[in-house]
Amino acid sequence: MPWIKFYTFGCKANQYDTQVLREKYLSLGFKEVENGSADLYVVNTCVVTQKAEGESRALVERLKKKNSSAQILLVGCLQRLQGQEKGSGRFSPNLEEEISFFAGHRRAFLKIQDGCNNFCSYCIVPYVRGESRSKPKELVLREFTRLFKNGYKEIVLTGICLGEYGKDLSPPSSLVDLLKVLEELNGDFRVRLSSLDPQYINEEFLNFLSQAKKLCPHLHIPFQSGDDFVLKKMNRRYTKEFACAIIKEIRKKIPQFVFTTDIMVGFPEEKEENFQNTLAFLEYLKPLKVHIFKFSPRPGTPAEKIKNQVKPQEVQQRFLALRLLEKSWREEILNNFLGKRISFLREKEISPGLFSGHSEHYLNVLLQTQEKIPDEFIEIEVKGMRGDWVYGTL
């Protein structure tokens, strides 16, 4: 019986792609090993930053040295990038694939879209994943229903650019159209979106979000910057004013709405005043969490060719300054939930009687109890904070 081990770098879409491969290989008779050597290593790679690409390459080299007799299957964005370098063009993942479980998780990711048409000036993803493509709605519904029946109470819809979902289908559809159909399905479950760019948060989406019962009151909205000069250089398709307006409108409709975001520091030609504008923007909006990225020049992208690169020490200073403020914003958001009741889904038992999971608002939650915790949503009251977590009681 051949043994197999999977490694995944990067986004939720990559994690889904790994699960597709896992189910294929297990059906062929492979057995997955968590620790120890394997006959086949599957490495799903990422090239969104130099660091991610370097980590992917380094792992492959370590595996070669560790077990020279094993086979290594390189998949993902690095494999596609190398294919382009060798003249074989783009590689398009198959959106007809489906999964039935999600190994190691109590929340399942479901990829409904791949590729991107936006071509932000710093981003290599459209070059390695191709143009936007959508999974047909009937396949999404079938896969979603299967995952729910297999015990997954929270299903995260993921893709590279979810806002483009449905535009390439025949007849054309939209993300809201899909969400409306999922909302009508029977069962106690919740739907979360992995990420949604600001320009796709329109009036139709806002109206649906405010009325939806199963869509989580949390969005990951990658703003990248809060300065209009930098946003224009990035080829992002919105302004700071627009970004502020949509968060203000959502919170007006959903008072306990929470958002997380991505921010890039050190984009070429970003001056200190531009960075300070971003800090003021975030101070006004107060995200729960900020994924902070240092600008990383990617081969073939317009931003790679901009001459006025920010000095590494300045980039590091901005990174640390933003990380410090991010912690204070998170504490403020979490403090607002003290005494409130939230919906808790158990994901792990850290130690006997201590459980962790997420709320509908994407809060990290700890629950300590000697009672048996069902595989269902349970209501708990938030009693306090421990670092980046809230804890509560039944």
> Approximately how much beta-strand content do the residues carry?
15-25%
Largest sheet: 5 strands, mixed, barrel
On the 0-100 scale, what is the average pLDDT? Answer: 93
SS summary, helix count: 11
What gyration radius follows from the Cα positions, in whole Å? Answer: 21 Å
Annotated CATH architecture of the largest domain: 2-Layer Sandwich
State the helical fraction. Answer: 25-40%
Count the domains: 4
**How would you describe the oligomerization state of the chains in this entry?**
single chain
List the helices and strands and how they pair.
Elements: E1 3-8, H1 12-27, E2 31-32, E3 40-45, H2 50-66, E4 71-76, H3 77-85, E5 107-111, E6 113-114, H4 125-129, E7 133-134, H5 137-149, E8 154-158, H6 175-183, E9 190-193, H7 203-211, E10 218-220, H8 228-234, H9 240-253, E11 258-265, H10 272-285, E12 289-294, H11 312-335, E13 341-351, E14 354-359, E15 364-368, E16 377-386, E17 389-393
Parallel strand pairs: 1-2, 1-3, 3-4, 5-8, 8-9, 10-11, 11-12, 15-17
Antiparallel strand pairs: 6-7, 13-14, 13-16, 14-15, 16-17
